[in-house]
Design goal:
heterotrimer; A mainly alpha (409); B mainly beta (101); C alpha+beta (128); A: 409 residues; mainly alpha; Amino acid/polyamine transporter I; C: 128 residues; alpha+beta; SH3 type barrels; 4-stranded mixed β-sheet; 3-stranded antiparallel β-sheet; globular
């Protein structure tokens, strides 16, 4: 019974923790522009992140080392330094975007300008990371993220949730007024939002802190293979409500309030309140993860002590990077860049960096020195290589499409 | 940076040009191999030289390294043909008249 | 590897994680040191840990920046952390030492950041 409870808790945490500001923005924007014509991209992205997260989890459980730690010795110093610089910068952008999402959610709740919330949110974020137990953080915000289910409820309470939505989903072509360029641009953003780099760094580092061993393999797999797809389902719900409300009106989505509005239309004031809570929970939870990821990748590249299990005095460099990263993330927002736009840029640059993130994982997961008999089988390798090709195509096309379409236009 | 002429690091070896004993260029040093002797010391035995750009591609050019079929085939095709192992005593590293080897 | 008798230094030793006797992180193998024996043949004498050593090895523009920054920030003349080869217990997926990391010189950056920043924040002595 206790085991069942633990497994369920793990899955629920994974579901609630899946969506972040990138998914919020990409799903909603795609829904407004294309209806459900891009729903298939979410499915493709979820399969990809499931495959690679399972590889990461397996590497951690068997070798007891986080994946990024192994990248430097496997790929060599020069390439992994390049990987570090790119990964860290994208992580920083993501942290800024998540903090922006937190501040916007607080603005929705209080009508106080998001810019005033940025320093507050950054400070609270850092204090929480400094003092609060890792496992507690993950559980609380993972479960709070489940409030996103209000959008799934909204799908069924809004008009036009039947055959029209299905029809859109089954015709994956640009809708009226759109062309293949904008279609491709949004597809890449959606794909990048499902496979953002920080997810795997955080996942594998967390596994080391929680001391996963071979016995945790099945629990890890249930979290990944059940939790992530259901989390992707929540992202699809966001796309669907945007499709129902905004697509027929041809409205351009550019505020977080518009993302939350369908919940209000469907369920009233209570729906809006739950939606705002959901937006806050997923962005704050993701801000914690990206903040930690930024420090993890630097510390693990240089071999420093890292993590929350040692007193900060014994991991001063790690904690300094953490502090500096949160400060820089807040500083980026205080330049008054639109947080939604920051998120869109973040997704494009994530797409560009994806090959650097995922190729090393595929390589490490095949190395018998780390995994002995648990190396990738034919299925894992086939899926891994296919997705690597997709990732490279997306990475190459991302910036040109961004330029050609003017970032979606 | 070694201040003592009798101290080396891999920075002085790997990536440097290598020449055979007659002064002919044989490639760049991609790696060095050490082996443990009877007195417990790990002495430098071989250098791995590459005539082309890459001396190493994810380790897949090595026969014992497993990986996804596509990447392994790619690495072996790109790297294996151009890489050689030479005894340390048969090369000079750095310059053709070098004091090494 | 200790156990095997041959090793490709670049592929099997460089950039490996170094752990102390208790499994605590010491650093990465940023480079290794050779001395020349009586016949002029190099043999391994130590592991070298430090950003300046790392920067020197990778070379290029970024490597030089890292090395120069590290050197400039050094207050004492100690240089990189040098771990004599006989302190190594085993080399498998990581290098494990036979001693605790408290016996090794502390990296300058860690020391400075702890004294001037982290230790001044309340709660820095507690783990989670």
């Amino acid at each position: 019974m206790k085991k069942f409870f633990a497994v369920t808790l793990g899955i629920l945490t994974a579901i609630g923790g899946f969506v972040d500001v990138g998914d919020l923005v990409a799903s909603s924007l795609s829904g407004a522009r294309f209806g459900l014509a891009l729903a298939w991209v979410v499915v493709v992205g979820v399969v990809g992140i499931c495959a690679y997260a399972e590889m990461c989890g397996r590497v951690v459980a068997i070798s007891n080392r986080p994946v990024f730690d192994l990248v430097r010795e496997r790929l060599g110093a020069r390439v992994s330094l390049l990987n570090l610089v790119a990964s860290y910068l994208v992580n920083l952008l993501t942290l800024g975007a998540e903090l922006g999402g937190v501040a916007l959610a607080l603005q929705l709740a209080t009508s106080v300008s998001y810019l005033l919330w940025v320093p507050v949110a950054a400070f609270v974020l850092w204090v929480v990371l400094w003092r609060v137990k890792f496992e507690t953080l993950e559980r609380v915000f993972g479960l709070l993220g489940l409030t996103l289910v209000i959008f799934a409820v909204a799908v069924f309470r809004l008009p036009g949730h039947g055959p029209e939505l299905w029809h859109q989903a089954l015709s994956p072509v640009p809708t009226h007024g759109e062309n293949w360029n904008t279609y491709g641009y949004f597809a890449i953003s959606l794909f990048a939002s499902a496979m953002t780099p920080y997810e795997v760094f955080f996942f594998s580092s967390g596994g080391v802190e929680e001391k996963w061993g071979p016995r945790e393999l099945s629990e890890m797999r249930s979290n990944v293979f059940v939790g992530f797809p259901l989390g992707g389902g929540l992202a699809l719900a966001l796309m669907a409500v945007a499709a129902q409300v905004y697509h027929p009106l041809n409205v351009k989505l550019d505020t977080l309030g518009q993302v939350a509005l369908p919940a209000a239309l469907a369920v009233g004031k209570l729906g809006l309140a739950i939606a705002i809570l959901a937006l806050f929970a997923v962005t704050f939870g993701a801000a914690m993860e990206t903040g930690l990821s930024s420090a993890y990748v630097v510390a693990q590249h240089f071999g420093w002590a890292w993590g929350k299990l040692v007193p900060p005095r014994r991991a001063a460099r790690f904690h300094t990077v953490l502090l500096v990263s949160v400060l820089v993330g807040a500083a980026v927002l205080l330049t008054t860049i639109n947080p939604i736009q920051l998120t869109e840029y973040m997704l494009v640059f994530s797409a560009v960096v994806l090959p650097l993130t995922y190729l090393p994982i595929l390589v490490v997961a095949n190395d018998r020195r780390y995994l002995q008999d648990h190396v990738n089988g034919k299925l894992a390798n086939t899926v891994g290589v296919v997705y690597l090709v997709v990732i490279v195509v997306a990475a190459v096309a991302a910036v040109p499409l961004m330029i050609v379409t003017g970032a979606g236009g | 940076m070694p201040s003592d002429d009798r101290v080396l690091t891999t920075a002085d070896l790997i990536g440097q040009p290598a020449y055979d004993l007659s002064g002919e260029y044989v490639g760049r040093v991609a790696d060095v191999t050490v082996a443990r002797d009877g007195d417990g010391r790990w002495r430098l035995r071989e250098v791995v030289v590459t005539a082309r750009l890459w001396g190493r591609l994810l380790g897949y050019e090595r026969p014992e390294q497993t990986g996804p079929w596509l990447l392994v085939v790619l690495a072996r095709w790109l790297v294996r043909r151009h890489v050689r192992r030479l005894p340390w005593s048969a090369v000079r590293v750095g310059d053709p008249t070098g004091t090494r080897g | 590897m200790i156990g095997d008798d041959r090793m490709d230094v670049g592929y099997e030793l460089l950039d490996l994680q170094i752990l102390d006797r208790d499994g605590m992180e010491v650093g990465k193998v940023d480079d290794v040191e050779f001395h020349l024996d009586e016949d002029g043949v190099p043999y391994l004498t130590a592991l070298l840990v430090g950003p300046d050593v790392f920067g020197h090895r990778i070379g290029g523009w970024l490597g030089r920046v890292i090395t120069a920054t590290t050197r400039r920030l050094r207050t004492n003349r100690s240089g990189p952390v040098r771990i004599p080869y006989d302190l190594i217990g085993s080399v498998r997926s990581a290098v494990t030492l036979t001693v605790s990391r408290d016996l090794l010189p502390e990296p300058e950056l860690e020391h400075w950041l702890r004294e001037h920043l982290i230790a001044r924040i309340p709660g820095s002595g507690h783990a989670q």
